[in-house]
Amino acid sequence: MCGKRTFNLLLLVLTLAGLGLGTRSLQAEATLRDITRDVQRKVVKIYGAGGLRGLESYQSGSLITPNGHILTAWSYVLDSSVITVVLDDGRHFTAELAGADPRFGIALLKIDAEELPFFNLDEGVSVQPGERILSFSNLFGIAAGDEPASVLSGYVSAIAPLEARRSAFPSAYQGPVLIVDAIVNNPGAAGGILTDQSGHFVGLIGKELRSSRNDIWLNYALPVAEIKEPIEDLLAGRSRPFVDPQQEKPQMPLTLAHLGLVLVPDVLDKTPVYVERVERDSLAAAGNLQPDDLIMYVDGTLISSQDALVEKLSYIDRDKVVSLIVLRDKELIEITLNELK
Length: 341
Hints:
One of its GO terms (molecular function) is serine-type endopeptidase activity. The protein is an alpha+beta fold and 341 residues long. It contains five helices and 21 strands. Helices cover 20% and strands 31% of the residues.
């Protein structure tokens, strides 16, 4: 009889322990669910330029002030006269580009709204390899209207300098990044956010890049510690240079005339860089530039207007090889211009 009572008591203890573990597990799931939903309310969908093959017209962003400042990745999507932002609750806003720092690949948008949920950058945290992270973004443009951002779970695999490129151009930012095992290099994920399990800001998902070493797509994010200062500069209205402030202009810089390029008339504040004519026996002709080509990148720098192209060329010596990416018949074409001998 004593043995039976002992067995029943042991069974009761194990049952209660199991119930306790089950309760804690349910509580943990509920807590993670609440944290996830809280973060999703701070993530926005961004729509702008693009829409052609290889150029998706959408990406992600995160609210970083209660009055409508949005952190996102600096990309061609923002090169549009109309940038639309959709909040988690489905509200649509037209956003203004408040600033950008191409050296870090970040941009700041502003919408006319108040009392919004937001990430406090001062509460951002650093993580180490092996720690769990959550990624939030509008990957593949799945979310629309009031649908929440997509969430992926993963771990930090490594922290290492960024050795990457986009097409033929190396990344301007080559500082430390978080390498993660979650697939965060999908179309639309750029500008999304990584958090820890408590929902604290960990890093910004960068635009799609390939490793310079093995040509595979990288799953990475810019750590909050690396981008906090430039973000604060943008919020304060302090302009960030689009070129290295230590860089000097060469005595013999490139010009449109030297390249043999004639662009469409510059009649707008941001006239697109469409080629109207290519001079015979010129650098542009040797590189197979053609009328109606849209010049999008010069040596890895996004070119948003004719003024931006002229400014970029003014920092390139005529003896240097120049790499371009142009849009031609809905395809991206890489072009290299060499000095004629």
